[in-house]
Amino acid sequence: xxxxxxxxxxxxxxxxxxxxxxxxxxxxxxxxxxxxxxxxxxxxxxxxxxxxxxxxxxxxxxxxxxxxxxxxxxxxxxxxxxxxxxxxxxxxxxxxxxxxxxxxxxxxxxxxxxxxxxxxxxxxxxxxxxxxxxxxxxxxxxxxxxxxxxxxxxxxxxxxxxxxxxxxxxxxxxxxxxxxxxxxxxxxxxxxxxxxxxxxxxxxxxxxxxxxxxxxxxxxxxxxxxxxxxxxxxxxxxxxxxxxxxxxxxxxxxxxxxxxxxxxxxxxxxxxxxxxxxxxxxxxxxxxxxxxxxxxxxxxxxxxxxxxxxxxxxxxxxxxxxxxxxxxxxxxxxxxxxxxxxxxxxxxxxxxxxxxxxxxxxxxxxxxxxxxxxxxxxxxxxxxxxxxxxxxxxxxxxxxxxxxxxxxxxxxxxxxxxxxxxxxxxxxxxxxxx
Length: 434
Hints:
By secondary structure, the chain is mainly beta. The chain has 2 domains: about 1-120, Sandwich (Immunoglobulin-like), CATH 2.60.40.10; about 125-434, 6 Propeller (Neuraminidase). Helix content is about 5%, strand content about 45%. It has 2 helices and 34 strands. It has helices at about 1-20, 235-240; strands at about 40-45, 50, 55-60, 70-75, 80, 80-85, 90-95, 100-110, 110-120, 125-130, 150-155, 160-165, 175-180, 185, 200, 205-210, 215-220, 225-230, 250-255, 265-270, 270-275, 285-290, 295-300, 305-310, 315-320, 325-330, 340-345, 350-355, 365, 370-375, 380-385, 405-410, 420, 425-434. The strands form 8 sheets. A 5-stranded mixed β-sheet has the order 2-9-8-4-5, with no helix packed on it. Strands 27-31-30-29-28 form a 5-stranded antiparallel β-sheet, with no helix packed on it. Strand 13 and strand 14 (about 185) form a beta hairpin. It is elongated, with a radius of gyration of 26 Å.
């Protein structure tokens, strides 16, 4: 093992020296010849044969040429970053999450070759804190290392890596966090007391429901995230005569956009499920369900008619078909708080803070009451992903050993990084898959 690492180190140093020029010298100090399209590209071996994200890999072979910009290397369908070549060696950085078992292919010009051996990609999982300071009690914008939160609530993230969240009293602010830009900033215009943010179908508009009444707020990227106050309008007397039902919104925690009809849906503690047109803002009652509980809403990304409703104080998740009107208990036991994994119909839930569907159609949710992150698979199995159920605390590290304290918010970005709003620890944390 020591000899192998030493060889990699020496080869790495040699290739770094070669990078001072586009044309690297070969082992005898001569200038490596350019790629010859009349000769085959040959892969003899690569080292190491396994590793994780950003692993330095050396591919040995023939006819690689002397210009790294002409070389394309893939690990499955993920392209690697080429650092340099000396004609018989390619030095590169392995890409992120290409798959567990990788086929390495090298292409130059119109020619390509596939390595006979497979590269084994080692996935690592780790919980880290990216912003906020455990024990703080105020909100302060700034760099990630200096920003602080006071009971951060539910969150969402767009494709540009902008995370949005709400802050409750005494601050009542809406903030935006960008990890790559190393900044937490407060969005302008208002004293906000809001529920869970959601993105529209374009991903460029963020909408927050105000807690009480029919007010909600829109933040548009094209308007530099300046907030606009909106009202859900009741049906007119003429519209009531035409069949639209009147509604009363007493409390709303979540909004969800239906791609089938274009309406935004919300849910009140009086049990009323209401939808409204985001263009005209005219609303109507859809149906009345369970009262006395806040409701988190999310449409299924494939079965777009299925609206999932997490009844927060009811310790359960329901689903409602907006086309047929059918309604059923999906997971949990109504009014029974607890923790139990297994079949969704017998599982127990503490308190759903927020949930989303991932790319594999798992329903991933924060169980604030049990201080952990869980999921429901498409096959109906409830599993604990992160945290130690029922144990509140603060600890980064391995996902099964990490500790949280009432995590109310969570979201997933395009790279399947799970971000967690760890409410009582006043931090934003994440589970990185590397």
